[in-house]
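Before the break, one more example. Copy the sequence into your notebook; we will annotate it together after we see the structure.
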Amino acid sequence: MLRSLADAHLVEYRDGEWHATAAGVCAYRKHDEYASFLNDLADAAPILAALPTETSIHEAFLAGSTAHIAEENVPDAVLDPMLQSIREASLVRGFAPKALVGSAMDFYDAAVTGDAYELELVVDGDVFDQLYELQPQETREAVEDPDVTLLRGPIPYAYGLWIVDDTDVGIVVYTEKGIQGCILNDTETAVDWAVEQFESVKDTAEPILFRGGRNTV
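Here is what the structure looks like once it is written out:
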C-alpha cells in the first residue's frame, strides 16, 4: 500500500519513516472534504427525496449543511431552527413557492421581531391570494409595513428559501401533507448560492400593492 502511494508521489520514505508529500497532504485534504460532503448529503437525502427528481440543489449549499427532518408527531417543530435563525435578524430575504398559512405567519412574526428589521419576500401569486383570504388583516399589515417588501411572481423552484443577514441560509421542503424538513448552512459558498437563487426569482417578480381594498400587482 505504501509503495503504491510512493509510486504516486503521495508519500516518501526518509529518516526511517514514511512522510506525506505536498501532493499527499493535498490529496488527504480533498479526500477528507469529499467524505464530509458525503455525510452532509446523506443527512439531507431524506429531505431532498421529497423534491421533484428534476430539482437541482447545488453542492455549494449542501457542503457543510445541517439537516432537520420533520417528526411525524410534531412536523411543524422542524421549522424552529429556521425561525430561530431569522429572529432578531436585521435583514431577511427569501421566496416561497408554497406555504402553510400557520408557518407563513410564524415566519413573518419572527422576521419582524427585532427593533430594526427589513424583510424582502417573493411569493407565488396563489400563495399570496390564499394568505390574504385566510388572514386578511395580518396580510394587509405586512403589505403596508414600510420595512417589508412583498413581491409576487413565478418561482421555478420547488423549495422555499431564506437568507439571514448574508450569513445564514436555508431551504424548506414541503410535501402534499406538510413539511418534509429544512436544511441550514452558514458557509460563504452556500450564502453566495442562495443569493443567486433569490435574485433570479426577484428579477421576475413585482411588488404587491393594495388599491381600493384589493391586492394588485
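The helical segments are 2-7, 22-48, 59-62, 80-86, 101-111, 125-134, 136-144, 188-202. The chain has eight helices and twelve strands. Try to locate both features in your own notes.
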